[in-house]
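WARN retry 2 of 3 for item q-0093 after timeout on previous attempt; input resubmitted unchanged.
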Amino acid sequence: MALLWAIIVAAGWGQAFIDFILWMHFLKPVFVIEPFAIGRAVVLILVTGAIGYFIGLIGALLWNRLQTR
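OK item q-0093 returned
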């Protein structure tokens, strides 16, 4: 999802997308999407990937531990 969001922002569609999502939920848009920055996009993808990896690792360890009992 982080990669998809980075692509949407790089394409220049981020603000319109977030405005539409908030409008559908009867919310007034208060967020402003900043211009795309490759360095920030890389950090976003790496951090979300690492978090997902460790959550999966913990889930797998717990699953394996429960299966051996």
